[in-house]
Specification:
Blueprint: H1 3-37, H2 45-76, H3 83-105, H4 129-140
Helix pairs in contact: 1-2, 1-3, 2-3, 3-4
Length: about 140
């Protein structure tokens, strides 16, 4: 095994560890929503929509990150791949997650999967445009 393969394998392992941790966190958010709906706990509607937004976005996003790591691993056994591209993908994904978390928990963005125009721009002014921009740019990354 050459040095590039070792670096790629470490990157894949790191991506899969991040994927595993985030999946567990998203499951916890899902349980929080179910407990609220079953009247076991009581959270505000605003917090519920924040949790719903991060749960839905997180599950789809982390599936993409984990899937790309697995595809990278198997493809790299057949052809030479540039590890810099893999780590750039991981870094941009993590920056996107950071933007989404800031949008949701700092700027109170909570549109769930209804983030397509015009809802982020015309949402009864529940939150500013900064949260929507951060969320959409995070999704892009």
């Amino acid at each position: 095994m050459n040095n590039a393969s070792k670096i790629t394998n470490k990157g894949v392992a790191l991506s899969l560890m991040v994927t595993s941790v985030v999946i567990v966190l998203m499951m916890i958010f899902g349980v929080i929503m179910l407990l609220n709906q079953g009247n076991v706990i009581q959270i505000s509607p605003q917090l519920f929509y924040k949790v719903m937004t991060i749960h839905g976005t997180g599950m789809i996003g982390i599936a993409a990150l984990g899937g790309s790591a697995i595809m990278w691993y198997y493809l790299s056994t057949y052809i030479h791949l540039n590890a810099k591209i893999f780590f750039a993908n991981l870094l941009l994904s993590l920056i996107g997650v950071l933007f989404i978390l800031i949008a949701i928990f700092v700027f109170h963005f909570s549109d769930g999967w209804t983030f397509l125009f015009p809802l982020p721009a015309y949402s009864a002014n529940l939150y500013g445009k900064t949260g929507a921009l951060l969320f959409l740019f995070g999704m892009l990354l």
